[in-house]
């Protein structure tokens, strides 16, 4: 279990993480989703004691990472596929990591085999492709057979088979009761892997909920309503606490009320409604919706770029 | 590549220790990073880099090469030396014995190479990103720093001592040709070997401190060169008593008083020199350790 409490990291004038609190539970895959620059990696580095929080704290299984007696056996982390000396072979890298915790050589061979690195284990890590580097990083994370795994963008640069392999691996590990905390900037990846989702944007937690709730936009249900008396219906629904957008005449988009409540209100007041459509956002839309105000780097529409 | 991808598709077998149920203790009773284990890890890291081995080999080659060259030169000019004021001073420092300092004539290069090795071993951790792995495994950080310091200093000492000794073995027959005697077992010979080896270990430690503080290979090596090669020359060129006096306190000028058979004018006393060199090692190492512990990786 990972518990962050008011975690904040300020670099000079820039606040990378702004008072983040969350809990990552054992036995499930928790996704950490956010656009690039949202503060995912910084948060993970703070969990691992590599970056010192400006304020706030974070513990793993009840203790700050630094205070664990056998940290690699407690938490395995892939923070960066390139956290390896470029001139050292993958095998020697793992061997040196293992030596700090008296992890036997047999386990080094085991993780090399698990991650499919057998053929390149004796080659310099500097020559690895991004995908190979990811596999080496995952091998290092698994070395101590840890109860908690932290993986920062593990599928980056992996081929489709590798992506499926990582997906199965983390599901398998969570199934054993381990804590798995996995970051990505791709909603579609999370949809297929995570049970629970923490969405972060500009250093703040935007959503923290089971993935099913985020997909269906629970509590944020939107309904499209067409009526020939939009002004009257607007007032009626606004009075019931809905937030309403009016994209065109005779069309309302209502957030915060169930379709049944809207129909009831219309019926009582004899307002004719000729369309009532619950809008289920796709995952991608839900994510965009959640983060649209929190994206640090906006891009121009394609049409404007080509101008 | 494609064959590798297929090899990796099967799911990993659960490790024997976790088969079945969950560990209650989260592995807290299993071995963690003690100093000996971290030292072992640093030794593995040290010997698994080709660049390290190349630097060590070149130190040996340079030391032995300069020893042989110096033996030949000393023999050739032994007669002329008495008329050369500089050589006469050197001779006086060794109690009139020129041959005894022959095995350590390459020491300036040994200190440069092994000092750079000290810089590189730490700076490369940061430039390659390895530091994140190192300090994730040893989050208290200082055991890893201390272990690396031990590896750097012991290696530098042993490499310098062994190559000085081999340089001596090579020099003896050459000097013999010119009728000069070099006794490698004499107390002055042993003193030169030990002091120079300790000195090079100290330079390597300073290099490692610089590598930790600057975290950049080029910057660290340039600083090292600045302290050991540029500063002594610059201090000599700048007029004024202050720089003449300050020059004595540069770490590179502590070897001569430490090895001289008799006190050389314009240098520190031996005990002062030892103290000054100690301060030059301890202060940067302390700074490096404190900052390493505090800074983000």
Automatic annotation (TrEMBL), chain A:
<keyword id="KW-0547">Nucleotide-binding</keyword>
<dbReference type="InterPro" id="IPR003593">
    <property type="entry name" value="AAA+_ATPase"/>
</dbReference>
<keyword id="KW-0813">Transport</keyword>
<dbReference type="InterPro" id="IPR027417">
    <property type="entry name" value="P-loop_NTPase"/>
</dbReference>
<comment type="similarity">
    <text>Belongs to the ABC transporter superfamily.</text>
</comment>
<protein>
    <submittedName>
        <fullName>ABC transporter ATP-binding protein</fullName>
    </submittedName>
</protein>
<dbReference type="Pfam" id="PF00005">
    <property type="entry name" value="ABC_tran"/>
</dbReference>
<dbReference type="GO" id="GO:0005524">
    <property type="term" value="F:ATP binding"/>
</dbReference>
<feature type="domain" description="ABC transporter">
    <location>
        <begin position="2"/>
        <end position="227"/>
    </location>
</feature>
<keyword id="KW-0067">ATP-binding</keyword>
<dbReference type="InterPro" id="IPR003439">
    <property type="entry name" value="ABC_transporter-like_ATP-bd"/>
</dbReference>
Automatic annotation (TrEMBL), chain B:
<feature type="transmembrane region" description="Helical">
    <location>
        <begin position="270"/>
        <end position="292"/>
    </location>
</feature>
<keyword id="KW-1133">Transmembrane helix</keyword>
<keyword id="KW-0812">Transmembrane</keyword>
<protein>
    <submittedName>
        <fullName>ABC transporter permease</fullName>
    </submittedName>
</protein>
<feature type="transmembrane region" description="Helical">
    <location>
        <begin position="49"/>
        <end position="72"/>
    </location>
</feature>
<feature type="transmembrane region" description="Helical">
    <location>
        <begin position="221"/>
        <end position="238"/>
    </location>
</feature>
<feature type="transmembrane region" description="Helical">
    <location>
        <begin position="145"/>
        <end position="172"/>
    </location>
</feature>
<feature type="transmembrane region" description="Helical">
    <location>
        <begin position="192"/>
        <end position="214"/>
    </location>
</feature>
<feature type="region of interest" description="Disordered">
    <location>
        <begin position="1"/>
        <end position="28"/>
    </location>
</feature>
<feature type="transmembrane region" description="Helical">
    <location>
        <begin position="106"/>
        <end position="124"/>
    </location>
</feature>
<keyword id="KW-0472">Membrane</keyword>
């Amino acid at each position: 279990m990972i518990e962050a409490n008011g975690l904040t990291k300020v670099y000079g004038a820039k606040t990378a993480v702004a008072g983040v609190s969350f809990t990552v539970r054992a036995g499930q895959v928790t996704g950490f989703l956010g656009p690039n620059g949202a503060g995912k990696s910084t948060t993970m580095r703070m969990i691992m004691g590599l970056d010192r929080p400006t304020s706030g704290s974070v513990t793993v299984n009840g203790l700050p990472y630094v205070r664990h007696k056998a940290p690699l056996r407690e938490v395995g982390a892939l923070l960066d596929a390139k956290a390896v000396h470029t001139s050292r072979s993958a095998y020697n890298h793992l061997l040196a990591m293992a030596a700090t915790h008296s992890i036997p050589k047999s386990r080094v061979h085991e993780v090399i085999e698990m991650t499919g690195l057998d053929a390149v284990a004796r080659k310099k890590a500097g020559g690895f492709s991004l995908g190979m580097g990811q596999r080496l990083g995952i091998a290092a994370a698994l070395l101590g057979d840890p109860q908690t795994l932290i993986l920062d963008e593990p599928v980056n640069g992996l081929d489709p088979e590798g992506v499926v392999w990582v997906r199965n691996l983390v599901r398998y590990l969570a199934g054993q009761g381990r804590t798995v905390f996995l970051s990505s900037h791709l909603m579609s990846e999370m949809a297929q892997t995570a049970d629970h989702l923490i969405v972060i944007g500009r250093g703040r937690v935007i959503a923290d909920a089971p993935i099913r709730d985020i997909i269906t936009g629970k509590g944020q249900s939107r309904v499209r309503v067409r009526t020939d008396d939009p002004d009257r219906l607007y007032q009626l629904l606004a009075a019931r606490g809905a937030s309403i957008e009016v994209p065109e005449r005779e069309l309302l988009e209502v957030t915060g009320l169930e379709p049944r409540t809207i129909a009831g209100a219309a019926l009582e007041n004899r307002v004719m409604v000729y369309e009532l459509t619950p809008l289920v956002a796709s995952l991608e839309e839900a994510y965009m919706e959640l983060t649209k105000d929190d994206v640090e780097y906006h891009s121009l529409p394609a049409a404007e770029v080509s101008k | 590549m494609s064959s590798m991808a297929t090899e990796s598709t099967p799911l990993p077998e659960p490790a024997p220790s976790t088969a079945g149920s969950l560990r209650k203790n989260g592995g807290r009773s299993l071995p963690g990073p003690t100093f000996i284990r971290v030292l072992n890890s640093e030794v593995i890291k040290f010997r698994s880099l080709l660049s390290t081995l190349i630097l060590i080999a070149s130190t040996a080659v340079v030391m032995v090469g300069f020893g042989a060259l110096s033996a030949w030169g000393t023999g050739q000019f032994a007669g002329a030396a008495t008329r050369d004021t500089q050589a006469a001073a050197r001779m006086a420092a060794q109690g009139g014995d020129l041959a005894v300092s022959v095995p350590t004539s390459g020491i300036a290069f040994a200190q440069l190479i092994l000092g750079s090795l000290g810089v590189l071993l730490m700076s490369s951790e940061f430039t390659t990103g390895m530091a994140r792995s190192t300090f994730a495994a040893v989050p208290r950080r200082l055991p890893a720093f201390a272990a690396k310091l031990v590896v750097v200093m012991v290696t530098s000492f042993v490499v310098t001592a062994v190559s000085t000794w081999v340089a001596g073995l090579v020099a003896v027959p050459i000097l013999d040709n010119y009728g000069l005697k070099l006794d490698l077992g004499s107390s002055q010979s042993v003193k030169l070997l030990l002091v120079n080896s300790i000195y090079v270990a100290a330079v390597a430690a300073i290099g490692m401190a610089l590598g930790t503080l600057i975290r950049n290979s080029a910057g660290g090596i340039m600083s090292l060169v600045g302290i050991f090669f540029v500063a002594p020359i610059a201090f000599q060129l700048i007029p004024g008593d202050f720089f003449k006096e300050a020059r004595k306190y540069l770490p590179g000028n502590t070897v001569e008083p430490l090895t001289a058979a008799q006190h050389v004018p314009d240098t520190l006393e031996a005990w002062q020199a030892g103290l000054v060199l100690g301060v030059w090692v301890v202060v940067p190492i302390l700074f490096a350790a404190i900052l390493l512990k505090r800074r983000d990786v």
